[in-house]
């Protein structure tokens, strides 16, 4: 059945149910990096500092709740992996820009949310849809003085001037690269162009840099996407390996100055195309890719080093995290002396996170550190012991044991720890 044959629900609640559910497939709605704004002492509405239902976490630990919806799930594109593709047999719905504004303000006043994440299927044309997305943000900012967080999903096929306007109203803008490889994009999203996507991301990057430079020179220069831009890759819909994905993510960070790359495990959809896998990839694969992302961003690992943690097939192990996998392959770099080693070497010790390493460096200025001191800063001292030297501890032959992985690998229920940081 085509989407035009399905009658759209009429009530706001029915449409909200459909369009909020359709938005769940987009993972790139975290709120890190936003400018702190408050309506305290003024006439504005909204804040990025209030309390509410937590949906996204900033790096400093703040929780920011977002109304996450699509403007519409009608779409003229036919991406094989998308539940909203034009050939999909799904219920369709649409909001007007004013209805999204009213919903956002209504939810904010009830303390349900602190901001808005807005995306959309493509209706009529990419530019027409982009205009409607921008209109939502414009009304919120200019007519209601809304000071909460706004994340707009921009459309690379739209007029570049429209994409640029989005950054004047949104805290963060994002363009999904969709798939890790050009071959995968060509095969599964025939209406999309990798060149066009990267061109739009380059334009956004240039606008962000120019705005930052202008703010340094002119106090009243307008802000442009102060929380930067992000993107998302779908994992498991094509034949890309984890090594391919890590390499692609590194290129995206370096080329476009992205704040985040998000990974979304492919999920089978109703009436799926025959070219798609029948099963979704393990959710642990998505988690391992996030861990590898952390290694590159916060632990000083080069992309090729993270790729070395993958097996011969290019896939990261599912039973151990990539940091431990790398350490087991390069045991010659261990053990590391916690009383002498520089910060960059301590960050490579499995089981020690950034906060633990910072605490160790601060503590060793006052005294020599024992194994018990290290144990207080990690979830599993058994995981750390083979890779460190302390005042009262040397691993001797433990680091070289053939069964070391079996001895220290976390139990299945413990797998979701992120380097015990």
Characterise this structure.
Pfam families: Radical_SAM. It comes from Novosphingobium hassiacum. InterPro entries: Aldolase_TIM (IPR013785), DNA_rSAM_put (IPR023874), Elp3/MiaA/NifB-like_rSAM (IPR006638), Endo/Exo/Phosphatase_dom_1 (IPR051675), rSAM (IPR007197), rSAM_sf (IPR058240), RuvA_2-like (IPR010994). The protein has 421 residues and is α/β, with parallel strands linked by helices. It has 2 domains: 242 residues, TIM Barrel (Alpha-Beta Barrel); 93 residues, no CATH class. Helix content is 37%, strand content 9%. The protein is built from 15 helices and 10 strands. The strands form 3 sheets. The protein has a 6-stranded parallel beta sheet with strand order 3-4-5-6-7-8. It has a two-stranded antiparallel ribbon with strand order 1-2. Helix 2 packs across helix 3 and helix 4 packs across helix 6. The longest helix is centred in the middle third of the chain and has 24 residues. It is globular, with a radius of gyration of 24 Å. It starts with 11 loop residues before the first helix and ends in a 13-residue tail after the last helix.
**CATH architecture verdict of the largest domain:** Alpha-Beta Barrel
C-alpha end-to-end distance:
50 Å
Mean pLDDT level: 87
Query: What is the CATH level 1 assignment of the largest domain?
Result: Alpha Beta
**Residue share in β-strands:** 5-15%
User: How much is the radius of gyration in Å?
Assistant: 24 Å
The count of DSSP E runs of length 2 or more, i.e. the number of strands, is 10
- What's the tally of helices? 15
What coarse outline follows from CA principal-axis ratios?
A: globular
Protein name: Putative DNA modification/repair radical SAM protein
Domain Elp3/MiaA/NifB-like radical SAM core: 65-292
Cofactor: [4Fe-4S] cluster
Keywords: Iron, Iron-sulfur, Metal-binding, S-adenosyl-L-methionine
